[in-house]
Amino acid sequence: MTSTLNDAMYYLWVKAFHIIFVASWFAGLFYLPRILVNLAQVPPESIAERTRLIGMAQRLLRFATLLAIPALGLGLWLWLGYGIGKGPDSGWLHAKLLLVLLVIGYHHGCWVLLRKFVRGENRRAHTRYRWFNEVAVLLFAAIVILVTVKPF
Fold first, then answer.
1. Tens digit of pLDDT for each residue in 17-41?
2. Residues 57, 111: Cα–Cα separation, whole Å
3. What is the pLDDT of residues 86-127, one digit of tens each?
4. Do the beta carbons of residue 5 and residue 51 sit within 8 Å?
5. Is there a contact between 33 and 129 (Cβ–Cβ < 8 Å)?
6. How far apart are CA 5 and CA 13, in angstroms?
7. Which of 57, 62, 89, 112 is 20 to 30 A removed from 8 (C-alpha atoms)?
8. Mind spelling out the 3-state secondary structure of the chain?
9. What is the pLDDT of residues 40-64, one digit of tens each?
10. CA atoms in the 13 A half-sphere facing the CB of 59
11. Among 46, 26, 35, which Cα is nearest to 141's?
């Protein structure tokens, strides 16, 4: 019986840290596009402001990437180690995994956009980045709903 209690306790710790790292990763993904909005609004002659915002965005992207690694690793541990989402009623997990791949793509997209700003190649208006900023919110909401409600 003690072994079962220990397994349950370890599961809860893994799950808790997975949630913490996912929420922290998304915090970076929520704020990074906001910095891109600000960068798109910087006048060409404001070199100091542009440099400051690029530095902020680069540090945030690096930090968000470091948070993504344990978030993904702990998620894999829950799935493969504890069997979360295995069985006949696991359609929600397949949908979640698809959304996680989209989140990874979104994260990569942030990196690509930031590189364009660093090279001075941005040609898009700030409104485009405002819309881009909402994608992370929609992905986060969809993932939370899938994990909580498990609709299929």
1. 999 999 999 999 999 999 999 999 9
2. 9
3. 888 889 999 999 999 999 999 999 999 999 999 999 999 999
4. no
5. yes
6. 12
7. 89
8. CHHHHHHHHHHHHHHHHHHHHHHHHHHHHHHHHHHHHHHHHCCCCCHHHHHHHHHHHHHHHHHHHHHHHHHHHHHHHHHHHCCCCCCCCCHHHHHHHHHHHHHHHHHHHHHHHHHHHHCCCCCCCHHHHHHHHHHHHHHHHHHHHHHHHCCC
9. 999 989 999 999 999 999 999 999 9
10. 6
11. 26
pTM above 0.90, yes or no: yes
8 Å CB contact between 135 and 106: yes
Q: 34 is written with which tokens?
A: 């906001």
Distance, in Å, from the CA atom of 61 to the CA atom of 107, rounded to the nearest integer, reads 8
Instruction: Copy the structure tokens of residue 9.
Output: 């306790």
Q: What is the rounded CA–CA span in Å between residue 146 and residue 116?
A: 34
Cα 65 to Cα 61: distance, rounded to the nearest angstrom: 6
Structure tokens at 140: 């986060």
